[in-house]
Amino acid sequence: MQSYQTEDELHTDAENLRKKLVELVCKEGTFSSLAVLEMSQQLDEYIVHMQKRIKSYKH
């Protein structure tokens, strides 16, 4: 994840990753495969980063 991304770029990247995660779950047939878990954790990092940005704007 790039720290210099704009909010729109970060949102777009997170949405693209979410779509890839859905595709991967369908391909793997399970939520518990290592590949799915790793991608899910990566998406979690994007979400946390977006939440921190939003929180910093409010203060």
From TrEMBL:
Entry-linked Pfam families: SpoOE-like (PF09388)
A Gene Ontology molecular function term of the record: protein dimerization activity
Top-level taxonomic group: Bacteria
Gene3D superfamilies registered for this protein in UniProt: Helix-loop-helix DNA-binding domain (4.10.280.10)
Transmembrane segments: none
GO biological process: regulation of sporulation
Name the UniProt record assigns to this protein: Aspartyl-phosphate phosphatase Spo0E family protein
Protein source organism: Brevibacillus laterosporus
Upper taxonomic lineage: Bacteria, Bacillati, Bacillota, Bacilli, Bacillales
